[in-house]
Amino acid sequence: MAVTDVLARRATLARSIKLLNDFRFEQRDPARFYGALACDTAAMVADLWRGVHGVSPAGCTLLDVGGGPGYFAAAFADAGVHYIGVEPDPAEMHAAPEATAPATYVRASGTALPFADASVDICLSSNVAEHVRDPWRLGREMLRVTRPGGLVVLSYTVWLGPFGGHETGLWHYFGGARAAARYTRKHGHAPKNNYGSSLFAVSAADGLQWAANTGALIAAFPRYHPRWGWWMTRVPVLREFLVSNLVLVLMPPTATGSTSVRS
């Protein structure tokens, strides 16, 4: 069985449309947007775990690198997963709504995780790599702290996709610096995701090459697309514009050196 077989049954057009609709509320109703994204992410991770191990991830320890406020913590707690969040910004750690479940957070950088080798079952990073100057150093740290047979799930926004510019909109196609300058002129302040300091151009090709070079890659697919659109990941150039958000799934090898999983 392929690692993505369980997830593929849920990756429908209806799911894609619902997520796209929820994206509209990121600024004016973050609880709606991040709550829906967190639930979908928890379901995606559970599907991937079942695809590899055939059982629920309940009871597993998950390290969420850059998880932000408590929406993700609540979604994984509902799934019976022991959640640990890593955040460099203390304001993010304390921004959780009162309704969310309490969670364990560690203040640290994702590129220097203060955790022992092979200490967690699952390491997740959702939409963080594009905000890191060296995203593959982040990826290497995620692999390091994940036990053999566990899962690393690294998902990021592809720069040339329609959401690559984040709040600067499609102006990033004219250059990241130009898009940030336009946003500043229009709004009187720099964008939160400012090109060159907190937003970087990360391609699908770079992520796929890095993951392949680790020898631990077991699956790669567009996060928000229906199953019939996953073929785009395999097409150079086209994937940079149409994949939008790329998920890399890696499994640190067991003592035998083999993942024994078909992607």
What does it look like?
The chain is an alpha/beta fold. The chain folds into 2 domains: 5-158 and 202-240, 3-Layer(aba) Sandwich (Rossmann fold), CATH 3.40.50.150; 166-200, no CATH class. The protein is 34% helix and 17% strand. The chain has helices at residues 5-8, 13-23, 30-53, 71-78, 90-93, 135-145, 176-187, 204-214, 238-242; strands spanning 61-65, 82-87, 104-107, 120-126, 146-157, 217-222, 245-250. The longest helix has 24 residues, at 30-53. It is globular. It starts with a helix and ends in a 13-residue tail after the last strand.
Q: Note the run of SSEs as H and E.
A: HHHEHEHEEHEHHEHE
* Second-tier CATH architecture of the largest domain: 3-Layer(aba) Sandwich
* Proportion of residues in helical segments: 25-40%
For the largest beta-sheet, the strand count, sense and barrel status come to: 7 strands, mixed
Low-confidence residue ranges: none
Mean pLDDT: 89
Oligomer: single chain
Gap between N and C termini: 8 Å
CATH class division of the largest domain: Alpha Beta
Q: What's the shape?
A: globular
